[in-house]
Amino acid sequence: MTNISQVVSIDPAVCTGCRRCSEVCPVDAIVGVEGEAQTIDTSKCVICGQCVLACSAFVSPFDDAAENLPAMRFERGLAEKDQLPLFAAHFRNDTKSVAELLDDPSKKSMVQCAPAVRTSIAEEYGLAPGTLTPGQLAASLRRLGFDAVYDTIFAADVTIMEESSELLQRIESGGPLPMFTSCCPGWVRYMETAWPDLTDHLSSCKSPQQMAGALFKTYGAELAGVGPESIASIAVMPCTAKKHEAARPEMQDSGQPDVDAVLTVTELAAMLKAKGINLAEIPEEDFDVPMGLYSGAGVIFGATGGVMEAALRTAIAVTSGKDVSESGVEFTPAGEGIRRASVEVAGKTIRAVIVSGLANAAPLLEDVRAGKADFDFMEVMCCPGGCVAGGGQPKLLPGVDLADAIAKRRGGLHRHDKELPVRASHKNEAVSALYDKFLGEPLGHRSHELLHTHYGNKSGGH
Hints:
This protein is 36% helix and 13% strand. The protein has helices spanning 20-24, 50-54, 69-75, 95-103, 134-144, 152-173, 185-194, 208-224, 241-246, 265-274, 296-299, 306-320, 362-369, 402-419, 429-439, 445-451; strands at 8-10, 30-31, 39-40, 58-59, 86-87, 89-91, 108-113, 148-149, 179-180, 231-237, 261-264, 332-333, 338-345, 348-356, 377-381. Strand 2 and strand 3 form a beta hairpin. Helix 6 crosses helix 8 (208-224) and helix 6 packs across helix 12 (306-320). The longest helix is centred in the middle third of the chain and has 22 residues, at 152-173.
């Protein structure tokens, strides 16, 4: 049966060897020949879960192998009543771990939701891709039993405060440039396993998920009047690699793991349905304050280019006083999955590059390695289209226009950004209060202690 000690697995008892998974793997980590069960080379795998989305081999209750379903469901950590087909490529299920944390009376549970969740979870209830449900999402999580329902977008705004400050510091000090974003754990893992000599170019910022977790167990614990050991920190993500990221030993600067468990969109939907909670029909509610307040800049983190756009909005504003949140920064296509722009920041021209899809990053990294890079700041999103296309998102049926669905999810986030009264991270009053009351200043001692880390050589496996 399946070894689920790793986050993403292929069940040899179900795999037909169609190799659709190999076609979408950005790092050629799928090993096998056509017609035989495939395996995953964990030394290469970036845990993006694209193989899970592409897999079409499954066992259903109507197959000859249905008698094995109860044992297979148990091994995968699924509920006995779960009647969904079991696909060969799948990710580790953490719903039981989350349920146990919610049932633990000694824990105060805090949950965060990534921006891409609110533009995709409605698909689990028959609604169209791109349908925005932030209010219903908050209400659903509250009904599931979470004590505090916060938002990863708050932490995305904090990430921008730190990352834009780091960029300005690197420009002033001369390096190391170009600086790479570090929000996408699939991209970070790719750098650590395939390009370890270039990891100094990664921003030292933790991802928004990990920043939120660290803040939950420090700032949030103070607000709740408890110690970090009493906080159960849960994240709802569109991404399978986030499960791996949460388990990294570097991610526990509060003295506890920043994030105790990660649910994908599909796992959250399964938990809601098991409790009879219909997200599509319940009234909207607000996220809790203060760590549920967010700007439009944080919202667009879920779409390719959003991190870059958000960082530049703040970097330009704090150095020039010019508000660019209305018009945005214009990027032009410059090759497959690549867009470029040049902007003025602190009196200097900053050349920015956005890369959508990990497979498109290698030529630019070769230029960096050769000292020929013609850019200063680069965002890379492992999944084509960004987090909206993450491996933990709802699986799209064969025949559905994948590109159109991803575009609609992206469109939902950009629409949400434009509708919000605050569209730049540095204008989020809750973030300003966080720095005034707790962190001090971006790149300050406490910020470095809780919100930054060091990425390095991880070649050799998970």
